[in-house]
Specification:
A hairpin with a 3-residue loop joins strand 2 and strand 3. This protein has a domain of 86 residues: Alpha-Beta Plaits. The protein is built from 5 helices and 4 strands; from the N terminus they run αβααββαβα. It is of the alpha+beta class and 151 residues long. The radius of gyration is 18 Å and the shape is elongated.
Length: 151
Amino acid sequence: MLKKHVGLFLTYLFCGFLTLLNAQTPAKPSASPGPSFEPKALPSEDSVVVTLILKHQQNKNLPEIRRVLEAQGFWDMFPPKECRVLSWTLAMGLGHVIVLQVPVSGVRRLNLAVENGAWGAFDTEFYLSYDYKIIWEEYLERREAARDDRN
């Protein structure tokens, strides 16, 4: 149990360190109310990227899941207004895979929105995450340059 907590804490610190290394000036808030659906995260010192998986409960069909979500007001509370939806994918056989940029001060509200609105319809999983695409592309460039140097 302690190893799990230490591992999660180290993951959180690592993600925070990466965020600090890539810090940029945050974008100006949009004039429109509600969550932003911009595709790219803006790294900042006071936000984290969270991947949320809402797994369909296999003992319920789609109309039953929708009834639970409506009865609990899920769509009124999710995503919380301060969260930015970076991507939202429906994976057949799994459920919703949602990537959010969340201010550190909004993590509790995100958790409560899921607990109060989605439980009973979905099994949930949360993961701190970061965009690896830029790191991967830089690695491929360095790898190609090293290959050219060898030849």
